[in-house]
Amino acid sequence: MTAMHDMLVRLYALPELAPALAHCAAQGVTIRRALVPEQPSVIAFICQHFPGAAAEVGVAFGRLPVACFIAIRAGQVAGFACHDATAPNFFGPEGVAADARGNGIGRALLLATLHAQRAQGYAYAIIGGVGPAAFYARTVGAVDIAGSTPGIYAGLIPRDPSAS
Hints:
alpha+beta, globular, single chain
């Protein structure tokens, strides 16, 4: 795993959630908090598209309320975003199916999840091990956390490639 830096988001300065949800709804996509009975379907989606995220998503489903938001398109999972999975106040993991990207789903999932963290009383959220830094900076004003590489992920045991 390549070491990636962390980013910080000011939760008290988030963009409004409603327009992002409405944009997705106009495309037939629903963004909402997952329910515990949906865990097998969500984990199956993640194992197919983002296998490295399955353990963290499992933890998010163990929280009440469930700390995983999902995008549903045509009755199927099209994306997900979690919080408080690897560490308290961490956002992630997040992922959108390749054929659903570029339609605002990732933005809506990000905002729904960060708004949930703000509702829990957090003033800031950490996006750990950032991949698309420009997306997070543009969408929610996330800023790099200096010296955060490799951060909490230092010494992480590599995923067994035969488990894919």
